[in-house]
Structure formats: C-alpha cells, structure tokens
Design brief:
Blueprint lengths: L1 E4 L4 E4 L28 E2 L12 H6 L3 E3 L15 E5 L4 H6 L3 E2 L20 H12 L6 H4 L3 H16 L3 E5 L6 E2 L1 E9 L5 E10 L20 H14 L3 E6 L13 E2 L11 E5 L9 H15 L3 E2 L6 E5 L4 E7 L2 E6 L2 H14 L2 E6 L2 E2 L2 E6 L2 E5 L1 H11 L29 H13 L7 H7 L8 H16 L4 E5 L6 E8 L10 E8 L2 E9 L7 H25 L8 E5 L2 H8 L11 H12 L3 E5 L16 H8 L4 E2 L2
Parallel strand pairs: 8-12, 23-26, 26-27
Antiparallel strand pairs: 1-2, 2-5, 3-6, 4-5, 7-13, 9-10, 11-17, 11-18, 12-13, 14-15, 15-16, 16-17, 19-20, 20-21, 21-22, 22-28, 23-24, 24-25
Helix pairs in contact: 9-10, 9-12, 10-12, 13-14, 13-15
Amino acid sequence: YRCYDIEKDKVYVSRNVIFLEEENGFNENKPKHEDDYSFLWINDDDVDNDDDVLPSSHNDAQNEVENTPFDRSSPRSDGSPREVIVYKRRSQQNIQESQPTLRRSQRDSHPPEKFVSYESFSPKHRACLLAIHSHVEPSSYLEAKTNPHWIEAMNNELRALEDNKTWDIVSLPIGKRTIGCRWVYKVKTRSDGSLERYKARLVAKGYAQEYGIDYEETFAPVARMTSVRALIAIASIKQWSIYQLDVKNAFLNGYLNEEVYMDSPPGLDLPQGKVLYLRKALYGLKQAPKAWFDMFSNVMFKQGFKSCYSDTAMFVKNTAIGIIVLLLYVDDMIITGNDANGIMQVKDFLKNEFEMTDLGKLTYFLGIEVAYSRRGYLLSQMKFANDIISRSGITDDKVVDTPEALGVKMKIDDGEILENPTPFRQLVGALTYLSITRPDISHAVHVISQFQQRPTSVHMGAALRIVRYVKHTITKGLFLSSSSNLNMIAYTDADWGGDPNNRHSTTGFCVFLGDSLISWRCKKQNKVSLSSTEAEYRAMATTTMEIVWLKSLLKDIGIDLNEATKLCCDNKSAIYIASNHTFHERTKHIEMDCHYVREEYLSRTIDISFVPSEYQLGDFFTKALASARFQFLLGKLSVITP
C-alpha cells in the first residue's frame, strides 16, 4: 500500500497497514488538494500521447521525484526496511497543465521489493511498466499449487499436451531409462502491460539425456542480441512499427526421431509402473529447439521468406511495396518493415499455421522493456535489474558511481575460496544478460566472469559492487535515436597486458549506426602481445570482423552501406601497419591479422582513422576508469536515464 503522511509530505510504501475506518485522516487546518501531488499510478484515460518516453518539454514540467534513503526506524512486517518516496509540491501552473487524474492505489499481495522511478515515462507506458514489474512468478511446484491461477494454468498445459498427442502412457521397456521434468511459470502480458494469461510450462530435464541414445543433432540458431538492437535501430530511423508475436507451445510442433521416456510431471497421476513415451518435442529436450526451428523455417520458406546469411534466425521477404523482416528467438518473434498490409497477412498466416498470440506493438521482449517516443526507442531491463538486486541479498543503501574500483587488478588466488560457488555463478550469468542493454557494466562483468571456476570472496565482492552500481543506475537504458543517419562508425582499443594472471591483453570495441550503439564487446585476446601495437592491431582485426558481419546483416535487410566504415584507433603504429605493404620482423608473427585488416582496408570496407585517446570510446570496454572519465564516456554511448 502507498500511505501518504500529510504532515511530512511523504508517501510510504509498506505491506503492513492498519486501517482506521472511523477517522478522517486529514488536518482541517492544513488543507491540501489531491492534484497537488504527482503519484506513480495515474489514470491515462484522458491522455492522448503516443510516446512512451515523455519529451523533454514535458519532463521539465513534471514534478521532481526523489528516492530517499530507506527509513530504518520503521521496518516492514517482513523485517526489511520501508522505502520512502518524497514528492515535492508542484506549482499551480503545472497542476493546471497536468491532464492525468489520480486513481486508487494499486493493491497487490506481492508488491515489488525495490523502487524504480517511472516519472519520466508517459502515463500509458508507466502503467505498462508497473503492471509488468508487479507480477510475481513462483519458483517451484509447491509454491504454485497454493494459487488457483497457477493450478488452472498447469491443468491447461496438461490438456494442451494431451490434445496434441505429445505422449503415450506405456510401461518402461527393459533397458530403457526415464528423464525427469519440472514446471516453469511465466506471467504473459499484453502490449499495455495488462495480464494476458498465467503460463505454466512443462520442461523436461534434458541434462539427463545421453548422446546417441536420447538425442543426436541439437543445434538450433536463435537471434543474436546485436541483430535485435540493429533491427530496432533501423526501425527507429525508418519509422517502422514493430510488432511482437508469441507461439504457444512452440516445441510441441516438432516431432522426435529418438525414443525418449519421461517420468510423470507433478500434478499428473499415472498408474503404477507407467511412464510417458514422448512422440513430440518438449521444452528442455536437447533436440527440441532444432525440431521446432526446422519446422518453422520450412513454413517461412513456403511463404516466400528467406533466411539471412548473417543471422539464420532472421527471415526477410521482399514485396512489391517494400520489405518485411521477422526475427525469431525460440518461440518469441518480432516483425517489422514498411509493408503494413504485408505484415498483417504474415501475422494471419502464422496464426493459421501455429497457435499464436498477437501481443501488439513491441513493449516487452525477452526481459527487455521497450519504450517508444518520436525521438526513438529506449531499451531497458529495470525489472530484471530489480530481481538481481533482490536475489543478491543487498539490503543496505550503499551505492557506487562506477561498476569497478579504480586500479584494482584481481588475481585467481585473491581472497578465500567460496564454499558454494553457485550464487556467484548465478549472479555473473544474470549480470551478463543485463549487459544486453547496459554497456556500462560490460567490462566489469567480463572481468568477474573469468573467475567462475574457483571464485573467492574478493571476486564475490567485485560482483556485488556491480550490483550496487546497478542499484544506483537502475533506470538507465540504451537509447536508439530516430534522427540518426545510416552511417556506421566503430571505435577499437586494447589494454596491453592488462590481465595480471597471464598478461593477455583485452580487446574492446563499439559500433554505432548513426548515433545508436548497436554492438560492443570486451574480449581477452588468445595470445600474449609483445607490444602495445600488436595488441591494438589484434583488437583492430576483431573489430573489422564485426564490421564486416554487421554490413552483411544490414545488406540482408536491404540497407547497403557502400561507403567505407570509419574505424577509429588511437595507436598510430597500428594504423601505419594497416596501410603499409611491407612486412618485417616485428609484424610477421601477426601476419594473418595484418593480411585480413589490410584486405578490408584496400577493398574500402573500413577506413582507419586516428582518434586522440581522450575521445577513444573503446577505452570504456578495456579497463576500469575514474568516475569523471567513466561518466564522460558513458554520455557518448547513448546510455541515458529517461
């Protein structure tokens, strides 16, 4: 509940609330108007605004909201500190200009544990984010079976599996063994954030399968996140609408060629000695993704789509009007293009072929929240970041301005070895996924991910520092501008011998499409470099490969970048080697990299330029930086706070 304190001008968020029905609660000597305060939950019925992110002129008129430290003097019923939100009074002029009206507090038995600021978003998108962030998903069957919504969802899933003839109930043959299964729960939302359905998915424990017995071929491509960002950036520039589709029980469309037997799932009673013989693929099976992707590809080919050479999970169709692009990630897909009627026809076709849900315009995809305004798209992961903070166990108010401590070089044997490395590995995995829209934590996550085999207390401390930084910057997201051009520019850099464990160098690069950052990477080089020039040149070769791939991807979408891509490097020696045709003793051991970069340079794929070190954006992905330098470079990477 949100409880307003009239005397202190504060709103408290608390689970423990006592209702005094007999008292008015308002001080007659100090009247206040409801409209004097801007709350998070706003009725957007009277607001006509298509933008999800408020324009700057609206932001200036908005009430300033401050997230104050936790009030330790009044903890919640569960023992955790209560969170306080301070709302400053708005001027009467701003009150009259504000159209949204207040509505009753949202009530949820499981409100979000952490506060996220939503005031920069439009009322419509704000309501969408609040709805998405308020949903709580059970982590086990024991937890889910206490909720009638999840019981119904599991029963619906079992009925769908039986109607689809996914399995036969048989006796286990002699010499065969079964694999287990478990339930996974997900709340599905519509494009406006409202509840679409409770989804319970039965997942097989595929890790128990044996190669050659239960499965053989398993590889199935999924869309690269760079492809997702590039496609959204292009749609933003070309003003294309982006839609999202979800396939229900996608893996059930694929047939199995192997004999696979499974135990009874929780909630399904089988006769004594009976097991399930799987006829069709099930989530969790090693071969299930391949069976589904093969079937989906064949369906798309019949519809006239072609699979992109650079990313086989991206399908493109050229029509008489323009182009349609569909990007597939397992059972989630986004579709865009400049042929609106063609897109509608494709959606209708897919609905006839598969059981699908049209989720409308893109707002929430693979845990990425997508906000749209006339200035572009904003990609963020606030809900996911909020979950990381909750799971990390951090309950104090300490935050940091940078994800890494300056001048600290961690070694393998620093600190005491953790008795249970699983929490550290889970945290690293979660932070790695968070870096999809947060390039500001990429290098820090790159460093700690090297210690997953034998993590220590020092490594865990470094991971928790990243979490504290995320807590401090939880609303930051990646902005893809709609006013950008379609010129590509890249920055490459290397930290020579920066790894204290083996003295390998670190490659860092970032690639922009106009003003939009679409690709970046931190990667430790495979070999020890004998000079900074060699390290820089290896980084240049890696960046060149990314540029070549991106150009090929854009060409598949119908965007042919004929001009050479500017590749900015701050090492003049490396630039000289790329343009010099003579090899000598100092370069023959990196001859392959030299030949590759020079070929692309001569073919005008890249145009190598010198950039001063102070403006080298690749420096952001190679080393820990001081706060001032970190904030300066971060401002150049299109990572903003809405």
